[in-house]
Amino acid sequence: MSSGSAGHVARSTDRPHAETNGGKPVRTSSRAFLRTSDGVAIDAVYAPGAALYDTSATPSAHPVFVVAHGFTGAVDRPHVRRIAEAFARYGGVVTFSFRGHGMSGGHSTVGDREVLDLAAAVAWARGRGHARVVTVGFSMGGSVVLRHAALHPGQTDAVVSVSSPARWYYRGTAPMRRLHWLVTRPEGRVLGRYGFRTRIHHRDWNPVPLSPVEAVPRIAPTPLLIVHGDADGYFPVDHPRMLAAAAGDQGELWLEPGMGHAEHAAGDELLARIGEWSLRRAG
Fold first, then answer.
1. How far apart are the C-alpha atoms of 245 and 252, rounded to whole Å?
2. Which residues contact residue 10 at a Cβ distance below 8 angstroms, ignoring those fewer than 6 apart?
3. Radius of gyration over alpha carbons of the chain, in Å?
4. What is the rounded (10 degree) CA torsion for 50, 277, 122, 100?
5. Distances (CA, A) of 140 to 88, 113, 263, 271
6. Are the beta carbons of 120 and 36 closer than 8 angstroms?
7. pLDDT of residue 26
8. Overall pTM > 0.85
């Protein structure tokens, strides 16, 4: 596809709802293919969530949560849908598949150009009428929301990063050594394509993108929440502590006892706390 403005809708499907809000039609759920600034088609879903049913306020009074999934996730995966349903109690929700994942185009760059995918999703979320946007990312998506907030200031009103690495090329755990094999070896990329339905780019990063820990100081004054499990099998607790130290007073760290990695380990109670934090901090 040719390049265009981020968030441009290439194709969409609106799903009408019969209810009204104060006599005005409520916003409807929809699915669209968004075009990133470098021309990749991104599959995205919007659900109005709490904005649909709260008749005491206009829908724009509610925030919209833009959810950035982890590596090998996709918008239709059950664990991503569960996250979306949890945040729908607090506002609208936009979920999307990163490039190379699900029905989105392109190939995964494992956290580099995925920032452009998130920028397109955030622009689309703003276009749904919400005044406040909260980006919430998990694992690879956690690193992407940090880098997006640093590289695109003013696009988001609060940032939540769950189970993110602090630095690139980490191979200190067995799961990360397996992931590096998957990404860097031709046979690994074949397994990624057919075993995990993830198309991985064959080229190395050039140049190496801004790392999460380098991005964090640039996020201020946007509120930042860093969430990590002390039983994470991918990234040990020195990663969130590095991120929190880089954030200083502007960031908040929740080190969750017994929690593992990313979406699968995020329980309902934690997701509710994240939703409530977002309502308080997004302004």
1. 10
2. 1, 32, 33, 34, 35, 41
3. 18
4. -100
5. 22, 12, 11, 18
6. yes
7. 44
8. yes
Which residues contact residue 167 at a Cβ distance below 8 angstroms, ignoring those fewer than 6 apart? 211, 212, 213, 239, 242
pLDDT of amino acid 2 = 34
Looking at residue 217, what DSSP letter applies?
G
Q: Give exposure, 112-147, as e/b (b: 16+ Cβ within 10 Å).
A: bbbbbbbbbbbbbbbebebebbbbbbbbbbbbbbbb
Residue type, 223: P
93, burial (CB in 10 Å: exposed 0-12, middle 13-18, buried 19+): buried
Three-state DSSP string of 241-254? HHHHHHHHHHEEEE
Alpha helix segments (H runs only) across the chain: 50-53, 78-87, 114-127, 140-151, 174-184, 186-195, 212-215, 238-247, 262-265, 268-281
Query: CA dist 214 to 59, 91, 108, 177, 283, Å?
Result: 36, 30, 22, 23, 25
Phi then psi for residue 154, to 5 deg, are 90, -10
pLDDT tens track for 13-49: 544 433 334 434 346 889 999 999 999 999 999 999 8
**ω into residue 221 within 30 of 0, thus cis?**
yes
Per the structure block, which two tokens stand in for 187? 């046979």
Query: Hey, which bits of 1-103 come out as E strands?
Result: 8-15, 20-21, 24-25, 29-35, 41-47, 64-68, 92-96
The list of the chain residues with pLDDT below 70 reads 1-27, 51-60
pLDDT at 27: 61
